[in-house]
Amino acid sequence: MNLYFSPLACSMASRIVLYEAGGDADFVRVDTKAGRTTDGDDYAKINPKGLVPALRTDDGEVLTENAAILQYLGERFPQSGLVPTGFNRALMQQWLSFVGTELHAGVFHPLFVPTAGPDAKGFAREHAARNLAYLDSHLDGRDWLLDRFTVADAYLTAVLNWAQFVNLDLAPYPHVAAFLERAKARPSVAKAMGEEAALARPA
Ligand SMILES: N[C@@H](CCC(=O)N[C@@H](CS)C(=O)NCC(=O)O)C(=O)O
Prior knowledge:
Blueprint lengths: L1 E4 L6 H10 L4 E6 L4 E2 L16 E3 L5 E3 L1 H11 L10 H26 L5 H22 L11 H10 L13 H11 L2 H14 L3
Parallel strand pairs: 1-2
Antiparallel strand pairs: 1-4, 2-3, 4-5
């Protein structure tokens, strides 16, 4: 299995899930700007959208989109309990969707992208205030999004970790900030973040 990733990008959620589950993969770094893997392969032939993550399964199939990859990985290691069953599974999908649309695409994407102007960035910060307040109230009295750590928490961890890079203060959302610290204390997250931070640092 190959996981195509860029350091500290959303693809880190899949690395966290693999470490949580005790799974293994070949991690293939992608320079998304150049459209190449570090092996020199044309990434457009792997994921025509040019984005990480992408996963090549042991059967040679390619899967893209965080929500799909995370669920696939969680189910591949059912003993991990990272994908719940029954109604909790639907709740987990609800949170995957919230993280992917309201936070990743709605807040952090416009804050990161240099071509998003002041209006777009202002909208993103308003969107952040509304959605982080909602998340904060949900996390009041809870450790994780559901009653245990799931793949949705791995995605939320990767996304919230970007707040430091876009000057988004989490202090007004103490339960969100506490979630991030709790997640960082998990061995899987500490390992994934440590490895990817080292790769992101200029040599
Ligand atoms: N909808 C996609 C979004 C993936 C995405 O935005 N990936 C970012 C990294 S977090 C990326 O590859 N950006 C590179 C670029 O825009 O050139 C998913 O959920 O997988």
